[in-house]
Amino acid sequence: MKTNAALLILGVSGMLAAPLAADSHKKGGWKSLFDGKSLAGWKSSTDNPAAFSVTPEGTLKVTGKRAHLFYVGADGKASFENFELKLKAMTTPNSNSGVYFHTEYQAEGWPAKGYECQVNSTQKDPKKTGSLYGVVNVWADPEQEQPPFVTTDNRGGINLRVKKAPSTDNEWFDYHITVEGKKITLKVNGMTTVEFIEPDGWKGPHKGMSGRFLSKGTIAFQAHDPGSTVFYKDIRLKVND
Asked: Which of 73, 29, 50 is nearest to 220 (CA)?
């Protein structure tokens, strides 16, 4: 982890810069994962399927106690290795959610496999939107007076200390997640929040997250708790293998 300190500091400074110019995409390659009408191609965990619904406006609503919605595709076998995922998300006050990748369907509990990209603007967990949860955290402290800086927690994670989350409640924001080889890049509204290169021999930040390593797998959305409501739309993925 120490070998990535300089790269991570660049991630902090990027949060203070102006948003990057829009990406130029090659023609084709992008696939919509959500049709705005149904949950076709998606499969909910069994602990609380009612957490996921489609609104009349065509957005994915995620609310209620813990559950996860996995993208399985038309054949039930969706799996990606190197990819870009773009989506729009909107938090409501005191809400927590997340986007998993390189994960796999799990009927109950928190997914054991894959990484989580945090979605949280104001909920009490200080790990905010743009975090690679438990690995590189965008750690918000409203009382913080000094410029962004980096600390390491006692469980192996790195905290990018900032004053507030890069997302705002009741406003749509762009989330861009890229996996290329051993490199994970997260952007919120065009600003890089995390660039993480998975070290050789990586076994997760600690024993409780031993499944957080790059392999291949699918995408999932998290319903976190009864007090949380988060919306998603324009969910697109491009495979770069």
From this structure: 73
